[in-house]
Amino acid sequence: MAARKVVISCAVTGSIHTPTMSEHLPYTPDDIAAQAIEAAEAGAAILHLHARDPKDGRPSPDPDVFMQFLPRIRQACDAVVNITTGGSSAMTLDERLAAPLRASPEMCSLNMGSMNFGLFPAVERYSDWKFDWEPKLLENTRDTIFKNTFKDIEGILDKLGNGCGAKFEFECYDVGHLYTLAHFRDRGLVKAPLFIQFVLGVLGGIGPDPENLLHMKRIADKLFGDDYQFSVLGAGRHQMPLVTMGAIMGGHVRVGLEDSITLGRGRLAKSNAEQVARIRDILENLSLDIATPDDARTLLGLKGGDRVNF
Fold it and tell me: Which Gene3D superfamilies does the entry mention (predicted)?
């Protein structure tokens, strides 16, 4: 099941890192659009997108903010747009779904279960904060749960899958999430080809150990056979080693400032495009071909960029 062409996904801003952590983290619509387009030009076939409040960078579910950058990205490049349904643990399910339901994108992310999602250790690493909301949001993850129940997932699959024709990046933070996905497959609520994102290194999920990636792949093979494609997300400093390992194993890769703000030990990445260029260079030096957006559409059975609402 080795991928003949490697799909590079770029997660442009997310809701994990905060403006204090990196001056290069985009949070205005202008910056999100510019960095997304640059990442696509550098080789990203899929752009995974969150929105942030333009005033202070806090995560935002507001569809009006999304619509300030989504049309600009579509006009400037052919990359597949993948909109979050995860948002942040501080958002309600209705808030998280408002933007993708309006935009009707080709792809959406879908976290395959409720989980602890611990960002609070980052509070200890900084003393001066640009905005008051930053340490509060991070510390609140000590006592909040990211909620995606079976009912929540059923609703997302129906509203965005059946209702909008979107396909999903199934984000699996632990082995149990693979079995949850298999459950929905067995019920006929999801169908091949599945695009599974192995997420390693988030506190509350499976750790960023190479043997865990091997185990996730082994269980996915057991459950899904040839009916899936996989990609690898390594959090923080584990990004490049784990995604490179995933590509060697026959998978796809995800980079971006949502997942890591660095480009190596002690060096902040200056842009999303810089991370995309780095992993593209690694892949090409491994004699692997880089997938175009249309390659990704064919591989994942997407509806096409002409059938979105932005």
Answer: Aldolase class I
